[in-house]
Amino acid sequence: MAKRRIPGAACVLGTLLLLPAIAFAHAHLLSSTPAANATVHGPEVAFELHYNSRVDGRHSVLTLVMSDGRTEPLGLDKQSSEANLNAHVKLKPGSYTLRWQALSTDGHITRGEIPFSVR
Amino acid sequence: MIWFVRDFDLLSLLLRALSFALEALAFGSVFFLLIAARPAGLSGDAQARLGRVGAWFALALAVTQVVLIGTTSAMLTGSSGMGMRDLFSAAYFISGTIFAVAAVVLALVLRWTKRLGPALGVVFIALGASVSLSHAASRMNHRPLLLILTAGHHLGMAGWLGALAFLVMGLRLTGDAEVARRMARRFSTMAVVSVAVLVLAGVGLSWFYAGSWQALYETSYGILLSAKIVLTALILTLASGNFLLIRRVKANPAPLLFRLRRFSEAELGLGLTVILAAASLTAQSPSVDETPDDILSGHQVVERMEWRWPSFHTPAFSQLAPPTPLRVAVREATYTGGSASDAQDRAWSEYNHHWAGLVVLAAGLLALISRLPGQRWARHWPLLFLGLTVFILVRADPECWPLGPRPFWASFTAPDVLEHRLFAALIAVFAVFEWGVQMGWLRWPRARFVFPLLCAAGGALLLTHTHALGEGTDEVFAELSHTPMALLGATAGWGRWLELRFDTSGAPAGESRFRRIAAWVWPVCLILIGVLLLDYRES
To answer: Which residues in chain A touch residue B139, judged by CB atoms under 8 angstroms apart?
Structure first.
């Protein structure tokens, strides 16, 4: 069910904080390969996630979620740029979701996911 | 752990806000002692007391940094399997540790020595660590310039608002009007320079991060930045009044110093609100990085702000999307920000906001009416908020008890629900306190300040919220609606504060004019908030 926000009056009276708070944003994903909902050719799949700011390639995390819900952490490759996260993996045809957790150099953590298919 | 992951973002944001505020206060103590208090001849005892307060702020800053490092590390180790040893090389860990150690050293220097030179040196080391944890450090372009501008912004904040807190304390500690006058004058000069540095650095940063005038109302970052600019302008209005006041102090110090203290308190409170807005900006993507999907057009902004009559029709509970299991909902929200609202969800939420608007509007009007002769009955207006508390508990989370299938206690594991209930409880607390104050049966003097402080804090905290509402522009629409309410909330809180602070037995004659103005400001703010809520819509 979607989140529902609370009457904003509370907001005003020291209690306006009722809205769900997620500070998504700092390392903002600008583009990715594969793109969200894209179909790519397997079995070799290379991932490149491009952010708006420098990300810590040693302490960020990429996780692959299989169609049956199993998860597999991916080892990160050498960054092609300070603003990119890179990885590669061999995949069978099917639907997958790439979950990412990026640590920007200023200490902010951001997360997101990219669903894609392998043909 | 999943609960922690889900709530980590809010925790991190609040800790950063606290860190900004404590940094300004700790650095401000050194600047005030060095530039204002010591040259003005403030007594040794008073200086030592101010140093001790500064030391406590520095120590609290160190603790905040340690907690921030701890939560970030726990987050990383818990969600990725990294060991603590892996984290020692992370930039946030190194910078955060240097920052915390520098803050401890600053606390020790302020507490145990009278020498301010070493304290100033430590301030600059801590500043370097702080700036390395800012937006600027992670930018790909113009990084050195952005780091310098950020450092200037932090220094300006400390030299103005951080030091202002010590001026307020210093004025209380000295009984010598001449020392007070000299101290206030020296502070005033320092504050003018600090404001200039703060504003120039802020303009430079805005140039790089916002990128255009339109971004100020078309993106979340820009809207928050606009709120920060409006609040800063409001504080500067108070500050300029103080500036002129200080130059008249020679003639008749007592009433002018009284007024200076009162306005400085409000200036400081609003300043802390700006710091919260600044912390919120650190969690937003700069406007220049936003994709077209996250940007509103001018036409959309105008259309959303147009007045439409509120709807008091709610969809039936059975028409809402069925709730997913709690654990699934929390996990989904971790990576995607939750599912997007459908039309029924939005109608449900708008109905909630419109009723809340009616309550706040009625409260504001009654607060005004209660000032008229023979209208004592209207002083019961805080009771309206008790009704709102029940309304929130029932309607805010329809997937939870009493409307939904999730049990009352189990639903507390969802941070959103926890927040809603905590704040419903807070509304109830302030409503009872303010009711007692209005009706005169609550005699505890400090009870009067519960309402203004909660009101101001609520406005400030609303600025720290970003909203993940599924669709990109939905978040910007939410900011458009809530940011003006946050500004009005903060203004209402400090308006009421000023009314109460000017209404004391120690107030010199002639101050009632300021009390009367302040007494009008906050009910009008409540009325405007009510109107904004009545015009609230999500579609």
So the answer is: 53-54
Residue ranges for chain A with pLDDT beneath 70: 1-26
Find out whether B258 and B506 touch, Cβ atoms under 8 Å.
yes
CB-CB under 8 Å, A1 with B323:
yes
Cβ–Cβ < 8 Å for B41, B169 = no
Which run of H or of E encompasses A46? strand A44-51
User: In sequence order, what are the beta bridge partners of A84?
Assistant: A50
Residue A22 to residue B321, Cβ atoms within 8 A: no
Q: With H, G, I as helix, E, B as strand and everything else as coil, classify residue B218.
A: helix
Strands of A29-33's sheet, edge to edge? A29-33, A44-51, A84-90
ipTM comes to 0.72
| Residue written as token pair 């309607």 | B395
Query: Does the distance separating the beta carbons of A5 and B352 come in below 8 Å?
Result: yes
Report which DSSP code applies to B321: P
SS (H, E, C) B112-159: HCCCHHHHHHHHHHHHHHHHCCCHHHHCCCCHHHHHHHHHHHHHHHHH
Distances (CA, A) of B357 to B36, B158, B210, B481: 46, 37, 32, 12
CB nearest B135 (choices: A18, A61, A106): A106
CA distance A38 to B337: 21
What are the CA-CA distances from residue B313 to residues B330, B345, B393, B404, B427 (Å)? 29, 13, 19, 20, 25
Single-letter amino acid code for the residue at B316? A
Q: Does A75 touch chain B (CB under 8 A)?
A: no
Helix (H, G, I), strand (E, B) or coil at B467: coil
Beta-bridge mates of residue A63: A73, A99
Length of chain A, in residues: 119
Q: What is the mean pLDDT of each run of 10 residues along chain B (539 residues)?
A: 56 83 94 95 94 96 94 80 81 93 96 90 96 87 93 94 91 87 91 92 90 84 86 85 74 72 82 77 77 79 84 81 65 59 80 91 94 90 92 84 78 68 81 91 87 83 56 72 86 89 66 81 94 86
pLDDT tens for B80-124 read 667 788 888 888 899 999 999 999 999 999 998 888 899 999 999
Distance from CA of B159 to the nearest CA of A (A): 24
CA angle, corner B329, sides to B353 and B335, nearest 5? 100
Contact present, A63 and A74 (Cβ < 8 Å): yes
Q: Which of B49, B263, B268, B246 is nearest to B160 (CA)?
A: B268
Query: Which CA distances in Å does B381 have to B151, B352, B360, B431, B496?
Result: 46, 20, 10, 9, 15
With CA atoms as reference, the chain B residue closest to A9 would be B356
pTM: 0.80
Q: Compute the distance between CA of residue B476 and CA of residue B538 in angstroms, rounded to an integer.
A: 11
Residue partners of B405: CB distance under 8 A and separation at least 6: B323, B399
Identify the H or E element spanning A47: strand A44-51
Longest dimension (CA), chain B: 72
For residue B121, the model assigns a pLDDT of 95
Compute how many other C-beta atoms are within 10 angstroms of the C-beta atom of residue B59: 19
Interface contact A22-B466, CB threshold 8 A = yes
Identify the helix (H) or strand (E) that includes residue A29: strand A29-33
Question: Would the CA dihedral through B457, B460, B463, B464 be positive or negative?
Answer: negative
Q: How far apart are CA B36 and CA B163, in angstroms?
A: 9
Q: Is A92 on the interface with B (CB under 8 A)?
A: no
